[in-house]
Design a protein that fits this description.
Length: about 100
């Protein structure tokens, strides 16, 4: 079976800090894009978005995804100065992990 965007389950979210609905939607689309070429069944996808309100931190925004793909867990995370950048990095890292799984 070839997964595609319409076959992926609803992404579950955990959030903390200043996370908007637009951030959640961007993360949802990032996960779906990263997994769009995955073979198999994505059983579960969870995303954690967190922003720490501390100007002393160089990368206060964190995006993390944990995906159950055919019983195997793929995990990726990224920290950045803002949430939009951490989501983009998360997408790239999750896509790389999915590509390794496809190649293996």
């Amino acid at each position: 079976m070839h997964s595609n965007i319409s076959e992926l389950p609803e992404v579950r979210f955990l959030t903390s800090g200043d996370v908007s609905d637009a951030d959640r939607e961007a993360a949802r689309q990032a996960v779906r894009a990263a997994l769009s070429e995955v073979r198999g069944v994505v059983k579960e996808a969870q995303v954690t978005l967190s922003v720490v309100d501390d100007p002393a931190l160089p990368r206060p925004a964190l995006a993390q995804a944990v995906v159950d793909l055919n019983g195997r867990r793929l995990r990726a995370q990224a920290a950045a100065p803002d949430l939009s950048e951490s989501i983009k990095l998360l997408q790239d890292r999750l896509a790389v992990r999915a590509a390794y799984l496809r190649a293996g």
